[in-house]
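Appendix B. One record, verbatim.
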Amino acid sequence: MNRRYIDRYLMRAMAAPLLATLAVSMLLLVLDQMLRLLDFIVKEGGPADLVWSMLANQLPEYFSLGLPIGLFFGVLFAFRRLSLSSELTAMLATGVSYRRLLVPIYALTAVMAALTFLTVSYLEPYGQYRYAQIRFAIVTGAVEVRMRAGEFLDLPDGAILGAVGGQRGRTLRNVFVETCDEEGRCEAMAAAQGRLSLDPAGEVQLNLFDGDILPDPRSGVSGALDFDDWSLPFDLPQFRLRGIDEREATALELYRFLSAPGAQNDANYDSWRAALHWRVAHSLSLFALPMLGIAMGVANRRRDSGVGPVLGVVAFVVYNELLEASERGIAAGASPYQTIWPLVGGFFVINLALFLLVAERPGGRVLDPVERLWRRIKRPLRPYLRRMKNLRAGRGV
């Protein structure tokens, strides 16, 4: 049998569960965060359309979390389906070994690991910063100014903003604005409508529509000037620069900070070191997942209890929790070579041993001892399970 055909067939078998898991995991994360953001914006009185901007900046983080999950479940369910349908047995009978089946899988894993590292090291930091910037703008009121009839606000740059009538939000009606320069010359603007917004650079600006400009008499300009659209920037509270928080720094910026002379004396040294080591470890962990997926996915067609996916999920979740705990330990001052890297190495070695047990032993399966234990536990419970089944059948349940 053509081995390239087997490679393509294996990749197609992995594609559906991989993409489905990635889509479902990201959807669940987005929905959960959407509810939190809606609650936050309603409490702060911000515009609801900013929910989408904040969610968009969180997508890189969800993508970096979904890629390992998708790869793991893609391999697990692909090999589970192939083993239950005896297609895996047919592949092995043609002389194709488990190690040869890893070739296309690890080609895909290398691409996904590189994509994960790019996401957590570059896309996610910029998304985190933009997310925090929008949140700051909402909390400080830079995006929304609450106007009431006859109220005037003194803005930080010396301007005065008022509206005869307005609605709660960024849209104002019958707007009056007075601005003065350093020499004391002032000009007034009156417009039928106004709107506060953020420009692409994140600066707050006031857009006026259908209005007139009343220049200062000392300027030499007489009479009012009308306009259809006019934009005024305001020096409202500004957000901090990117990179102060280690989550907003790229991998290169983290490396430069840690490599600088005297960096170890900095108060942020441990947290920045933890962030860099976690990003590398998180990306490299993908190379251990195919072996775990194969070990937990290969099933016995005659006696399959379905325990493989359950144990695989437990192992995956426990490892990620330990990885997060190791990052917190490094941030608290522990050495990464005593915490996170022994964990990554141990995870890789354990999964390699599980894979070799399946690949090197004819008919070998990691789950055989677990399933034998389950059958022993289940044996005394069979009469009760049968009785419950009969009761349900009798009640039409």
